[in-house]
Amino acid sequence: MTVFHRNEKKEPLPENLRGGVIAIGNFDGVHRGHRAVLERALELARSRGVPALVLTFEPHPRTIFKPDEPVFRLSPASLKARLLEAEGFQSVIEYPFDHDFSQRSADEFVKSILSDWLGASAVVTGFDFHFGKGREGGPAFLMEAGKRYGFDVALIDAFRDEGAEVVSSSRVRALLMQGDVVGAAGLLGYRYTVEAVVIKGQQLGRTLGYPTANMALPPETALKPGIYAVRFRRAYGTLHDGVASFGYRPTVTENGAALLETFVFDFSGDLYGETCSVSFFGHLRDELKFDGLEPLVAQIKRDEEEARALLSGVRPLGELDAKIAF
């Protein structure tokens, strides 16, 4: 799958991708609500025999409009692209979002990007999508612009879960902040997954008999500190069960930065420098401060046993989960 990062004036779109069906949105998390839009775009592309593309924006627009309020991203750009590729899209266009871009008029956005650059044959987005300076472009504007520039428009209503509540990124974030990775997975349609480079830590786990693969997640990550049963995927695709601690390591350090430390079961080797991913299957307990290393090691052993038991019976939630966490 092709991922484009550049401005359309500098990077012409390959001819074989022009004329496609374009799904537009931030799609943070690529959750079940997003997939109502994405699946409609894929259906249209298949019926027309044209490429299916996603147009998204990097960084998240909120970081431009509210720089003092960092966004807890559910899926960084690289992971989002993997999820969208697994869904069946031929290309993801990560359009640079900055202050200058935010000042473009709605008509300029439609003409320069959707029409001239992408040559869109159809556009699919959520019913509440707004764009252009001052959010002047809305559903009615997009429908009318489609008639002028020669592309169809499909607007998708909000997707609701089994409890008739709208599935949204904010709901997923709220569940993760409570440590409810099972509830979050129900909204995402796959296990919540993070991706980062494995770095060197204090290497205390190695001396205790529990070496860990350490990852520094973005500081705005608001996952509840605690111990989780996880699946760990190496950069080269091999998958391992494990138990992970996310938090501040109060037993061995004070005022440390948050770190994700994964004890990878039945594995020995050097992971430093690899970009790996961790998928969360269950919250085992909160982060605790122990009175010394001996009770900490005893608890880690119990955590390992509980994680092994939990992971031994897991099954994919669906096709996307099978591709990401199995």
What does this protein structure show overall?
- Helices cover about 35% and strands about 25% of the residues.
- It has about 325 residues and is an alpha/beta fold.
- It has 2 domains: about 1-155, Rossmann fold, CATH 3.40.50.620; about 190-325, Elongation Factor Tu (Ef-tu), domain 3 (Beta Barrel), CATH 2.40.30.
- A 6-stranded parallel sheet has the order 1-4-3-2-5-6, with helices on both faces. Strands 7-8-11-10-9-12 form a 6-stranded antiparallel β-barrel.
- α7 (about 170-175) packs antiparallel against α8.
- It starts with a strand and ends with a helix.
- The model has no long low-confidence stretch (mean pLDDT about 90).
Summary, kept brief:
It contains eleven helices and twelve strands. The protein has 326 residues and is of the alpha/beta class.
What is the 3D shape? elongated
Give, in order, the helices and strands. EEHEHHEHHEHEHHEHEEEEEHH
Number of domains: 2
CATH T-level topology of the largest domain: Rossmann fold
